[in-house]
């Protein structure tokens, strides 16, 4: 086999792979309408109802990642510290609520004893 034939064979194989592969995927893949026809109506309704919440959750996640990346620490360490801080804040808030409830109970008890 001559060098020209070898080069022609290699180039034609490359063209078939580079052009034919994506063309085959494009030709075989279903359209958006076909996908929606196969989609369960209940799941589609639930997905559309939860869409805004999922988008908001994703935005919050991305914003937190941006915040974590600003620090000099690795992201997972910054995330762990933030989670620990959030847990501490939640625990403190629960303690405050419990103390407030206890004060109200004592106040109600004192008022009922005075009567």
TrEMBL record:
TM helices/strands, residue ranges: 6-28
Keywords annotated in UniProt: Chaperone, Membrane, Mitochondrion, Mitochondrion inner membrane, Transmembrane, Transmembrane helix
Any coiled-coil regions, as ranges: none
Superkingdom assignment: Eukaryota
Chief localisation class: mitochondrion
Keyword DNA damage: no
GO cellular component term of the entry, any: mitochondrial inner membrane
Membrane topology: Single-pass membrane protein
Pfam families per UniProt: CBP4 (PF07960)
InterPro entries: Cbp4
One BP term from GO: mitochondrial respiratory chain complex III assembly
Subcellular location as annotated: Mitochondrion inner membrane
Keyword Membrane part of the UniProt annotation: yes
PANTHER family per record: ASSEMBLY FACTOR CBP4
Family according to the record: Belongs to the CBP4 family.
Function comment: Essential for the assembly of ubiquinol-cytochrome c reductase. It has a direct effect on the correct occurrence of the Rieske protein, core 4, core 5 and apocytochrome b.
Annotated protein name in UniProt: Cytochrome b mRNA-processing protein 4
Species annotation: Letharia lupina
